[in-house]
What we know:
- The structure holds two protein chains of two kinds.
- The termini of chain A are far apart.
- In chain A, α2 (10-35) runs antiparallel to α3 and α3 (40-62) crosses α4.
- By secondary structure, chain A is mainly alpha-helical.
- Chain A has helices at 2-6, 10-35, 40-62, 67-77, 83-92, 101-111, 120-149.
- By secondary structure, chain B is mainly alpha-helical.
- Chain B has a domain at 272-334: MYOD Basic-Helix-Loop-Helix Domain, subunit B (Irregular).
- Chain B has 18 helices and no strands.
- Chain B is elongated and about 85 Å long.
- Mean pLDDT of chain B is 52; it is low at 1-57, 69-114, 124-254, 352-389, 403-416 and 430-440.
- Chain A: GO terms for molecular function: protein dimerization activity.
- Chain A: Keywords: Transcription, Transcription regulation.
Amino acid sequence: MHREALAGNPNPSRHLQALHFLGALARINKLRARKSPPSRRATALGGRRITRAAYAAMAVAAGPRRAWSRAILLGLRRNSIAKPFLIKKRILKPHRELRDVGSRAEELRRLLPGARRMEFGSLLDETLNYIHHLTAQVGIMQKIADSLCK
Amino acid sequence: MDSSQKDKGDDRLSYHGSDIHGDWRFSSPQMSFFGPPPVTEGDQMCYSSSSSAMAAPFGRRLWETAANSQSPVLPPPALDMPWNPPAAMPDGGGALFSRNGAGIFLHGLSQFPADPPFVERASRPSSFNGFAAGGMGSPSSGPRVVISGAHSQRSNPTSGRAPPKNDDRHDHELGAGGHQEENPSSGTTAGDPSSAGLLPKKRKRGNQEVVLEPEQTTGDAQRSVEAPKENHGNKMVDERKNSSSEHGKDSAEPPKEDYVHVRARRGQATNSHSLAERVRREKISERMKFLQDLVPGCSKVTGKAVMLDEIINYVQSLQRQVEFLSMKLATVNPHLDFNIEGLFLKEILQSHSVPMSSIGFPPQIAPPQLHPGQSSLVQPGIPRTGNPSDALRRAVNAQLAAVTTYGESANQIPSAWAEELHNIQVGAQDFHGSHLKAER
Lengths: 150, 440
């Protein structure tokens, strides 16, 4: 299953992810380049757009097989993603009481998009896949940021 | 009667082809498909949640009634064979239900990729995808282990049919039919009768497995609560099966089985439920091991709770990292040269040269799918300038199309998905565009 998560060939899916993300970035750039306001709010807005683009790239690379990717894409479609925006709230309230495995599983379900009523086994499966794609996305973004800041 | 039952079964199966998944899902909390043994043969399959009084004779009777005809007529191999909830099957359902259950069972099982730990314990792993896909909307790759013997193999000699993996259901049914036929004649002859004798147990266990699966889906607590209730009836069946199989009475031991065949280890409870729980626990522990490898710094952590804590922390930190990096990219973005994006592509896709070589950044490539959407979106808001960026975008899209065509995603991304992929891009653009208008 781990091999499944890696899809046996991590490169193609990562390349797909990178391509999608770069395409989205290019598009965002095009949208931004016209006005180019250096305000802080614009930065936050652009940042949110980029996070959405990042999650979209992840979801697209993961394919429709995963519940989290489907949830992300559906949320994107309806223009109402819960996941990226919930992150801030989660940061604000880091306090969580995890009594047992059940509550931790609940926490995981909250973290993963589209993993609400999933059983524990498949929850772990989704988490594996999600972490895999998340790390890929972080790597991509870090590379881009590094080459940009050079 | 049996033929009529079978016809009913077929009809029902075909009828329930589409919706039962949801039904199964909803009925899963009921969990106890095997209620008290029905007095009449197949007519009263009482799947009340009281359950648990199952005994092997019940199962036998089930099989006898259902499979007397030993008809090779099996339900269609539709993978979406419904899992008829007990409520939906008022009567005549004993055999039908078991067949359905077995069908669903087998269907799901056939798609299970092999997990090494399971392979150790099972002759052949298989998946429970039908269940998963239908009932829970979980990804089709979600493996579900089913503890059961392989009817198909056993029934093959009896029914004379070779079960391919995807026809597990048929084999299951056939096995049910076959061994039912032989049940009455269950004699002392070596191969078939013993296998036939075991088949009902297997079948029963399989069904119980099916029962257990929904149990598991509803959550640990519920499962743990429900499990003891249903353990009673299955005990004898499984014990008998396990004992007989362990004693080697089963001469027709199938070398390959279509779904995970978990054997009760020595000194362990042979209850089918406990077996299923054991399989589930092993599945979970295997996944925890994988997660341990993935999450850095968790090699020394033992125990699910702490491990889950680490996983949660890791996921949260990754999401925060994405957020932070996106903010960083947003500040840096104005400096993004259009040419640099091409450099990004080359740099990031260094290792994988196929898409690059295939596309080679032809500036005039216009991906047909994306262009209309993009043009519709981009043109109203932004005049098209900057040839390099356009070329880059087009190249990116072309590369994406190329990658999708021969990446591993090609297999999993049907055309509709690829279209949605583009729609998402368009949608994201929409999003950004609308935000742009809204905020400015």
